[in-house]
Fold:
Amino acid sequence: MTIPNWLSASRYLLAPCICIAILTNTWLVATSLFLLAIITDVLDGWLARKLSSVSAIGGLLDHSADAFLVGTILGTLSYLKVIPWILPILLISAFLQYVLDSNALQGKTLRTNRLGRYNGFGYYILSAISLIQTSINWQVFSAPTIYYLGWGLVLTTLISMTERAALLWLSRR
Structure:
């Protein structure tokens, strides 16, 4: 385990702590831990490149930690009816498709698609908006707006998954 991999793995520990903080209405704690998780996400890739320790397993660990982090946060937010219930399910399904399509379990590098990458940012942004504005008690986006943004991510996730499936099907023909 390299330092970048430890940073990635730390998000597995931070995610349940963030969810507990959300469920106990300690939103400032949740937001602070989320910001710490973002710092680890930025640092792990940068350090891996700086230390020449980039690897397929490190990439898989990084991406799976991201999916676990935002999946658990969005799952908690869906439990609270802040976002649509289906979004965290689709996020995890899309991530599993991403891993399996890339043959990452056989040690291959993950293959991204553009929309999937944008969705990844969208999951983080939706989580950040929900956490930050609740923790500072400043509603930039109304509850219905956040809910509809969640539905937008549901739609783009479905499109991305369909695109991936179609490309895989065409490549095997």
